[in-house]
Amino acid sequence: MNTTETTLKMVFDRWYALLKNFDTTLNALTDEQLQHEIAPGKNRGIYLLGHMIAVHDDMLRLLDLGEKMYPELFEPFIKEADKAVSELPSATTLRAYWAKQNEVLKQKFDSVPADEWFQKHTAVTAEDFAKEPHRNKLNIIITRTSHLAYHHGQFVLIN
Predict the structure, then answer these.
(1) How many CB atoms lie within 10 A of CB 42?
(2) What is the per-residue pLDDT across 58-95, written as a single tens digit (0 to 9) for each?
(3) b/e for 84-117, b at 16 or more Cβ within 10 A?
(4) What is the longest distance spanned by two Cα atoms in the chain?
(5) Contact 141/11 with Cβ under 8 angstroms?
(6) In whole angstroms, how large is the CA radius of gyration of the chain?
(7) What residues contact residue 35 under an 8 Å CB cut-off, 6+ apart?
(8) Which residues make beta-bridge pairs with 44?
(9) Domains contained in the chain, number
(10) Where in the sequence is the domain holding 80, given as residue range(s)?
(11) How far is the C-alpha of 31 from the C-alpha of 116, rounded, in Å?
């Protein structure tokens, strides 16, 4: 295994391990529990789940892998704070979106040639990328892995 393959394996092993841990925690929660706040006055589980879907949805665009699957989730889960929107999709709907999105992301990630992970993502200009080559597609996976770990930590506080 060369350095590129090793690097990709390390990053994606962590990504998929965190997704598995998040799914285990999510599947242990009832839809009613997803209505609970992680702490008094903080986000509810349902909001965090929708937020995760919306953030991961944007990865398709950033990685130049297609259009968002659920663009309607941007407004309530990225632009607005929890409880600022009166109607959210049901927990059942969000669970289905989460599962489907993770299947699609895996299929798309598996189709990306190894060297393409080190190319620029769509939110960086060619000029900026020439100066900062670390602003590549793999870095999107790394930052989203950290984001997933952060919110998984919040999810375990739901009871």
Answers:
(1) 12
(2) 999 999 999 999 999 999 999 999 999 989 999 999 99
(3) eeeebbebeebbebbeebbebbeeebeebeeeeb
(4) 51
(5) yes
(6) 17
(7) 44, 45, 46, 91
(8) 37
(9) 1
(10) 3-155
(11) 39
Neighbours of 153 (CB within 10 A): 11
Q: Please give the helix or strand (H or E) that residue 24 lies within, else none.
A: helix 3-28
Distance CA 159, CA 156 (A): 8
Residue that is written with structure tokens 């895996």 in the block? 106
Amino acid at 88: L
| Token pair belonging to 63 | 């990685």
Mean pLDDT value across residues 10-19: 98
For residues 68 and 58, is the Cβ–Cβ distance under 8 A?
A: yes
Pull the structure tokens for residue 49: 């789940």
Could you say which DSSP state residue 44 is in?
B
Q: How far apart are CA 85 and CA 104, in angstroms?
A: 28
Looking at residue 44, which CATH number applies to its domain? 1.20.120.450
